[in-house]
Amino acid sequence: MTEEMIQVKNVNKMYQDLTALQNVSLDIKKGEFIALVGMSGGGKSTLLRLIAGLEKPTTGSIKVNGDNSKSIMRMMFQEDRLLPWMNVLDNLSFGSKDKNTKAHAQELLELVELGDYADHFPNQLSGGQKQRVALARALMTNPEVLLLDEPLGALDALTRRKMQDLILSVCEKQNLTTILVTHDVEEAARMADRIVVMKNSTNYYEETCPKKRNAGQIGIVADRVLGEILGEKEAQMQTA
Amino acid sequence: MQNSVALPKKKALRLPVTKLLPFLIPIILVLFWQVASSLGWLSSSVLPSPLAVLQDGIELTQSGELPKNLSISLYRATLGLLIGGGIGFILGFINGMSKTCRLLFDSSIQMFRNIPHLALIPLIILWLGINESAKISLVAIGTMFPVYINTFHGISSVDPDLIEMGESYELSKRQMFFKIIFPAALPQILVGIRYALGVMWTTLIVAETISASSGIGYMANNAEDFMDMETVILCIVVYAVLGKISDLVAKSFESLLLEWQTTGRSNV
């Protein structure tokens, strides 16, 4: 648990004149569940995309497992991004004819409780089912790092709660290092070991969550995190 | 239980009606045409009766003239479409995939596309004469642009989120094309092919009417010289049937290749 899986060192990201991230450093241990929260434009998704290797930092370095290897990471996006022309099983295996790949895909579908939906097309599934397929697809290559870019944002409250439990149980079983970007502070307080509040491109706050937590503790952590986010916004409004 | 018994009966009654409905208007028109001819409302020199056209068709089939001309027209149309469609697809593919190729070729292709291809007939005759290559070239030029435009548009408008997903899953370039780009562009490519089929027949009719010694267009043109109205109408009907068959073939391809678009939620 003490081994560093992800090391973000003095990362800056500029989009022409706009500074998205300034001097960000973050260490994430193997098996740790981190939540990135904050106002829109705070750089949460940018940081996740940099870690995923979808974009490159302007300066600074990001190391995953001592290297900058993409192959041990898989990402779940806000939209399911399933291929509509492939059935569920082929979406997991990208149409591979390999029997072992198919068998592994079927196992993962059982894990996300969609074992009977292998031959369905994405347009036959509900939003929650699609995200469960996307989760199964992310687990296909047995990743060590799972990156979640607001994957539950579009789901209703009940489906969202079920998905949170499913993700938590999968991450725990497979000892995945996980980064979750979310707008929902309660979701962050419920799921994460550590919450990183990204107030703006330069200002960060960290909150460590209790190991075992009840609803009351979740509420207290969520309130504290929300206070940090809103406090910054109120200060900005006063300055303005 | 009563409902589950009643439903299939309703379906059994409805299915033939929906299948027959598209034929209703053509049948009524032909019947009206036949009645109008039989009652003398229509002169045979203006419009011969459907029965006279049918009889002419039977005679031309028995003599071998219609099958011979039909097969040569089909040969020209198919070969022209394969060449033009193939070139259009390749150009659309490379311009859709490569920004450099797009900058190099697209502007020139768009310039040529705006020239009506039938306006090239005199030039094609001067270059290639009135032999097969002239007619096939005209069909190829006509069908190339719809396939090009739709392939290019289909490939360049693939959802970037899907491409990004493919990148994050480290798909190879080959996998990226065959698993994501081509299937995503396919609906648009098929629209281009369907449109090209229409252009294919129009171009062939014109090409065979102006410069040919065989083919359905030639038959119609020749019949006009002899005031043979039955054969003129027969040729028009043959073109209409060929057009309809092409459209049905294109539709079958669409339903076969794009099955996922119509698979609904009903069997969830």
From TrEMBL, chain A:
Keywords: ATP-binding, Nucleotide-binding, Transport. The keyword Nucleotide-binding applies. The keyword ATP-binding applies. InterPro entries: AAA+_ATPase, ABC_SmlMolc_Importer, ABC_transporter-like_ATP-bd, ABC_transporter-like_CS, P-loop_NTPase. One of its GO terms (molecular function) is ATP hydrolysis activity. Residues 6-225 form the ABC transporter domain. SUPFAM superfamilies: P-loop containing nucleoside triphosphate hydrolases. This is ABC transporter ATP-binding protein.
TrEMBL record, chain B:
GO terms for biological process: alkanesulfonate transmembrane transport. PANTHER family: ALIPHATIC SULFONATES TRANSPORT PERMEASE PROTEIN SSUC-RELATED, ALKANE SULFONATE ABC TRANSPORTER-RELATED, MEMBRANE SUBUNIT. Pfam families: BPD_transp_1. Its main location: membrane. InterPro entries: MetI-like, MetI-like_sf. Keywords: Cell membrane, Membrane, Transmembrane, Transmembrane helix, Transport. The keyword Membrane applies. One of its GO terms (cellular component) is plasma membrane. Residues 66-250 form the ABC transmembrane type-1 domain. It is a multi-pass membrane protein. CDD domains: TM_PBP2. This is ABC transporter permease subunit. It is found in: Cell membrane. The chain crosses the membrane at residues 20-42, 74-94, 114-130, 136-155, 176-193, 232-250. SUPFAM superfamilies: MetI-like. Belongs to the binding-protein-dependent transport system permease family.
